[in-house]
Structure formats: structure tokens, C-alpha cells
Amino acid sequence: MGGILVVNFRPLRLLAPVAVFLSLLLAWHLLATYGPWEPYLFPSPRGVLDKFIELARSGELWSSLYATLHRLGLGFSISLTAGVILALAMTRFPGLRRAIKPYLLGVQSLPGIAWVPFAILWFGYNESSLVFVTVIGSIFAVTIAFTDALALVPLHTLWAARTMGSKGLHLIVRVGLPAALPNLVSGAKQCWAFAWRSLIGAEMVFASSKAIGLGHLLNTGRDFGDSAQVMAMMLATLAVGALVEVILFSTLETRLKRRWGLSS
Q: In angstroms, what CA-CA distances link 155 with 39, 81, 179, 218?
């Protein structure tokens, strides 16, 4: 009787996002209906939905989505692997970090799509070019993020490990990496966006029918003056990005922070 009754209103947290979504949808409908543009230039939500259904029934949407996610998975896996190795080397050898980190920061600022001409010259119009652009568009960001994450490991953790005999690579791999996991996941969440943007941009440049993907469908819609398809693929790209971040990275980040006592 003397306790405090706590009522969980977690479903109420959805009200604000849902209200914003419905407001944006209404504004979009009104702008498409009463705005200055013709329907073929600014389609209504219903027009975009119809285009989604058309692409889904024809199978183009699913084959393009699979192709894009396959390239993203392969390219980002390579970036993560190479980025971890480089980050470990830069952490193990501070002189190496001081020597190359400024250059990594400079190259990181270069948009991934700027590598497309080199990719075409080196590999041609094929899958290797698209994977290369995905890798090169994210590997530098991964390396810098992971190096910074390892540098944020509490000193008392490293001191305690050293007093128990851990040193060198063992200290980094067996102590530093586990302690840095929450920050590593946060860094990976940011870096995968570099890979995602680089891949979609590269797919838009590749006009070959062999290079199907969400970016290719978006570019095809532009070439044929199909604004509904352009908008549908923009929303599909946005939706995939949001789902990957919320379902994969944010969930993993939250669990790790709770396990490490960094959040309630």
C-alpha cells in the first residue's frame, strides 16, 4: 500500500512520431493537390504508393533491393575488417597513428561517389566497381571511428589489466576491444551510412542493366520523367536506412550500454 504505483506508458511514446508522420503525409497530400506543380512532377502519396505496388508486383523492387543489400553487406564487411586491422595497428603503434591519421581525415572528407570514375576505369561496369566504391567510401571513416573508440577506453581498465600481466597486442585485443565495444558499435552505426550513401550514388551512375539496385531504379525514374518512381525509390532508400539503424545498430548499442552500465 505504501509503495509507489508505476504505470508504464511506453505505447504513448509512439504518439509523437505517428503524429509527425501523419502531419507530413497530410502536408504532402495538400501540396500535391493544391500546389503549383503538375501531378507528373509532384505526385501525391497515392501515386507513389501505386508505383510501389507496381514495382513490387513486377519483381523489380525486390530484385533491386536484394542486389543493393548484397553489395552493401559485402562492401561494409570488408570495410569493417580492414578498418579494425588498421585501427589496431594505429593503437598499437602511436607513431603510425600520428603519421597517417591526418591523411585519413582528409581522404574521409572526399565523397564516395568521387571514386566512381576510378572504379569504372579500374574494374569496368560491374559488381566489383560498386563494391569498391562502397568500401572506399567507408573504410577511412571506420578506421578513424574505431581508433577513436579504442582511445576512449578508461585508463584504469588498462592499468588494472597491466598489473595482471596483460600487455601489447593482448592488452588491445583482450581488454581494449571488449571495453570499447559500445563506442565501436556507435562508430559502426555512423560509418555504415557512409557506405550506404556511396553505394546508392554509385548505382545511380551505373546505367548498365546488369547493375540493378535501388539507385538504378531511382535514376531510371529520372530518365523516363517518372517522378512517382523517383520519389518511391527515395522513400525506399530512406526506409531501409532507418530500419537498419533502428533494428540492428540501435538495438545492439542499447544492449551493450546496459551491459556495461552506461545506461539504465
A: 61, 26, 11, 49
Nearest to 150 by CA among 196, 85, 100: 85
Residue 218's nearest CA partner among 245, 192, 236 is 236
Q: Which residue has the cell 603503434?
A: 93
Q: What is the pLDDT of residues 54-106, one digit of tens each?
A: 999 999 999 999 999 999 999 999 999 998 889 888 888 888 888 888 888 88
Q: Cell for 68?
A: 543493393
User: What's the one-letter identity of residue 72?
Assistant: L
45-259: CATH class? mainly alpha
d(CA 238, CA 102): 32
Q: Using an 8 Å Cβ cutoff, are 110 and 197 in contact?
A: no
